[in-house]
């Protein structure tokens, strides 16, 4: 049993005899990097050598703060875009409070579509998950909970396109920035 577990950790599975499931190619490495610096940590992939673990610690010590800066900047750009649209609506239609509320609502709905409602359709297609499982994965990932019960690109019976993990990695970054804005709005509302 231990041999089977070690083989699986090394990327060898009993089904299909695949050797790495794309774990350490560019896409897999990029996805691992994103899950490390975003602190999602699915638990399905980890360094197995002392040197790898030390590098991962150093990478995370530098990468996590840089990622927080990046997410903050992305969130601020999204917020500036929303505020700019609200000002333009106010100028064009002479709406005061309606424009701000309308734009915030549009930004919320657009973000819901892009980051929580549409991605499960992609996951249903590529992973074979139900829509509900894809939605669950989307929220658990973007909120950085990352249980690891659902992880993309890990089914040895499926063939994944080369762009898949890269696109999901970018979705994670932008989706986390959007969700942080939503949480910030909720905090402001509650306060």
From TrEMBL:
InterPro entries recorded: 2pore_dom_K_chnl (IPR003280), K_chnl_dom (IPR013099)
Tell me where the transmembrane regions lie: 26-45, 51-71, 101-123, 135-155, 167-190
Which UniProt key words apply to this protein? Ion channel, Ion transport, Membrane, Potassium, Transmembrane, Transmembrane helix, Transport
Q: Topology in the membrane?
A: Multi-pass membrane protein
Superkingdom, according to UniProt?
A: Eukaryota
Which is a GO BP term held by this UniProt record? stabilization of membrane potential
Q: Does the keyword RNA-binding apply?
A: no
Give the GO cellular component terms, alphabetically.
plasma membrane
Location in or out of the cell? Membrane
Q: Where is the Potassium channel domain?
A: 19-78, 114-190
Q: Which Pfam families match?
A: Ion_trans_2 (PF07885)
The protein's matches in Gene3D superfamilies, at most eight in alphabetical order, are given as: 1.10.287.70
GO molecular function annotation: outward rectifier potassium channel activity; potassium ion leak channel activity
Q: Which SUPFAM superfamilies match?
A: Voltage-gated potassium channels (SSF81324)
PANTHER family linked to this entry: POTASSIUM CHANNEL SUBFAMILY K MEMBER 17, POTASSIUM CHANNEL, SUBFAMILY K
Q: Which family does it belong to?
A: Belongs to the two pore domain potassium channel (TC 1.A.1.8) family.
Q: From the Swiss-Prot or TrEMBL record, give the protein name.
A: KCNKH protein
UniProt lineage: Eukaryota, Metazoa, Chordata, Craniata, Vertebrata
